[in-house]
Amino acid sequence: MTAGPVAENVDMASTAPTAVGAFDHVRAELHQEFDGRLPVEKVDRCFEAEVAKFHDARITAYLHILIHRNARVRLRAVEARPLQVQD
Question: Is residue 85 a part of any domain in this protein?
Fold first, then answer.
């Protein structure tokens, strides 16, 4: 069995969405769920960190799902951590 056709002279890295803006709908969903419970800046930082993890992904069809799931797990963990106050 052979792989499917590949277009000539196509740089696969340049076709992957690398800008955070490509996943604005994911950011909006995270804010909808966590705003009021976590600082807006924390949600944004977590989202941007997850997008950065996949900056060189070659297969991007389900990237928005991975980013959303990973960010949600991280934000839920932050939310579950008790606040630690230093004396």
Answer: no
pLDDT of res. 83: 66
Residues near 40 by Cβ (< 8 Å), separated by ≥ 6?
31
- Rounded Cα–Cα distance for residues 55 and 60 (Å): 10
Give me the number of domains the chain comprises.
Answer: 1
- Residue 57 falls inside a structural domain: yes
Which amino acid makes up residue 61? A
Range of the domain at 35: 19-78
73: in domain? yes
Please report, for the domain that includes residue 69, its CATH number. Answer: 1.10.8
| Cβ-contact 47, 1 below 8 angstroms | no
- Residue ranges of the chain whose pLDDT lies below 70: 1-20, 82-87
